[in-house]
Amino acid sequence: MQEPFRVWKDVYAIGGPDLSHPYDCSVYLVVCGSDLALIDCGAGESFHRLVSNIRYLGFKAEDVSIVIATHAHIDHIGALYRFREQCGARVVAHELEAKAIETGKGTGAEMYGVGYTPCQVDTKLSGPEEALQCGNVELRAVHIPGHTPGSIAVYLDIGKRILFGQDIHGPYFLPGSDITDAKLSLQKLIDLRADILCEGHFGIYQPASEVKRYIEGYLYGLYS
Questions:
Q1: Do 109 and 74 meet the contact criterion of CB atoms below 8 Å apart?
Q2: Is pLDDT at 160 greater than 80 in this prediction?
Q3: What average pLDDT does the segment 66-88 reach?
Q4: Contact 30, 10 (CB under 8 A)
Q5: 103, 65 in Cβ contact below 8 A?
Q6: Secondary structure percentages of the chain, helix, strand, coil, to 5
Q7: CB of 165 within 8 A of CB of 191?
Q8: Considering its fold, how many domains does the chain have in total?
Q9: Residue 35 — very low, low, confident or very high, per pLDDT cuts 50/70/90?
Q10: What does the pLDDT average to over 163-187?
Q11: Can you give the CATH number for the domain in which 124 is found?
């Protein structure tokens, strides 16, 4: 396994196939003063590894005050319950994903052959863009339906604009996916003009020109 690493300033990569577990999406940590924010939390098998990676960077898992679930697929939400119960983290997701997170139905856990403990969603987003305060940092959550009805991206400005676009690659043929919505959402992400893109499975892209090129590659692919 690789060691967790800094993406930019107070943003770190702490989870993913090479960092925590083969089933995990990319998991990102944002340091917000004395509080910590997580963007997604893997498929659940790697909770202890994620905690260890947080400690490796010199932080405490008990300071994770918010976990933002970008959508309700198991590889993004498996450890929500444990971060909520053991670290006291507030769970945030779009209201259209909340039912799956809170019941376990529609997470795709059976495809991975892993268990899933349903978790209460503390903050349910509903608007096109909403502010989330964590410590001294404002995170912006943007509704980007397409991959799932309630998919969200998150961005923040800390000298550079960091975009957690997550599953930009889709796929867009799963139950609940919508290609028309995906086209609009991908354009919305391009319009954010991010300097660094933290994708959900396929790495980190920079500078801004590379971010734009990467997202456009999927957007134009949907028109072919």
A1: yes
A2: yes
A3: 98
A4: yes
A5: no
A6: 30, 30, 40
A7: no
A8: 1
A9: very high
A10: 93
A11: 3.60.15.10
What residues contact 216, with CB distance under 8 A and at least 6 apart?
Answer: 186, 190
The position carrying tokens 């989870």 is: 15
Letter for the amino acid at 173? F
Report the distance separating Cα 109 and Cα 132, nearest Å.
Answer: 28
Q: Can you give the residue range of the structural domain that contains 139?
A: 5-223
223 — pLDDT class (breaks 50, 70, 90): confident
* Residue 110 structure tokens: 């059976």
pLDDT at 173: 87
Q: Looking at residue 112, what is its pLDDT? A: 86
Residues, the chain, total?
224
Distance CA 218, CA 117 (A): 33
A 10 A CB-CB count for 128 gives 10
Q: ∠ CA 221-207-211 to the nearest 5 degrees?
A: 20
- Check pLDDT > 90 for residue 124: yes
- Model confidence at 224: pLDDT above 80: no
Neighbours of 94 (CB within 10 A): 28
How far apart (Å, rounded) are the C-alpha atoms in residues 77 and 44?
A: 7
Residue entry with tokens 């799956």: 100
Structural tokens at position 157: 């400005």
Helix axes 208-223, 179-191, angle to 10 degrees: 160
